[in-house]
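Bug report (template v2)

What were you trying to do?
Predict the complex of my protein with adenosine monophosphate.

What happened?
Run completed; filing so the output is reviewed.

Input:
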Amino acid sequence: MRKNPKKSPAQARAFAAFLAFFASLLALFGALGCTPRPEAAKETFAAMDTVMTLTVYGGGSDDLAAAKDRVLQLEARLSVTDPDSEIAALNRTGTAALSPDTAELLSRSLELCARTDGALDVTVYPVVRAWGFTTGDYTVPDEDTLAALLEKVDYTKVRLEGDTASLPAGAEIDLGAVAKGWTGDQLAILLREKGVESALLELGGNIHTIGSKPDGSDWRVAVRDPADGEGYLGVVSVSDKAVVTSGGYERYFERDGVRYWHIMDPATGAPARSGLASVTVVADSGLYADALSTALFVMGREAALDYWRANRDFEAILVSDDGSVTVTGGLEGAFTLSGERPLAVVRA
Ligand code: AMP
Ligand code: MG
């Protein structure tokens, strides 16, 4: 048997031609400023009361299927309106054994309720229901009804020992203000374990990005204009971040010319009227961004900026009722308004 056979002249020419062809392809990609891109796999489905679109680059349909299964598993555990969920069982009986997922989310949510001094309060559910936001059967509850319900609202009374949670009589919890953000975190963990380094996870208004775009540039995430909930306020450039928005425009009803929305002030039992129309939070953690978008909306502009100054572990875009926009310093250069309107950048 011959080892290292010499190539015939014809073979050598063919090989040289192949090399030249390959080199010219590389040169062409170089000239175009790109390298071959990993393909996108994409799936859209309804879950957690919204429409989700997951786009994964360089992964396969297996990764997408696993991510979708994880969303559906978490929805089945966390949904307050699904009678078979762990949260529904806890609300019904006042005590329940929780899966590690639900226990972790509840435990971290209770910490965030404390950190935001109760602007986020996972026990606000009886109030949310009284306004009809769980069924779409909207009403404006009278003051006595709200006063009675507010007696039940107090996250400090929720007990979590090991995997067993318990509530005082009449109290009920709802993780709707944080569930999608935390789900984004869980999907990022799952997909990264599968080797995915670039993905855009759109969980309704919650955006979670893994890495940057396949060409190495930042993701450009559009932020809605709360004035109509349709047009765009601007675009924020991020990589490896969650971008989460809470706004009165997302779910509301009108009575006698007054608009009532789904984000409640746990201090009053009524929709939070803080002077803000929407809050977008950019943070490493989806859970933190989701908790804060709700809590800062309740707090209002000044308290939200104080919270940012005291913590500096997130950035925010605050849109006031008059349409003016405030962004925190870390977003300077990363956020671009799409039209003309007042913009203030707060640096310290
Ligand atoms: P988000 O869209 O993330 O701001 O969450 C709003 C949802 O969380 C509402 O639909 C309610 O189910 C619930 N919620 C409303 N107000 C609060 C609050 N202050 N703290 C905790 N959850 C709330
Ligand atoms: Mg939220």
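What did the reviewer find?
The mean pLDDT is 92. The chain has nine helices and 19 strands.
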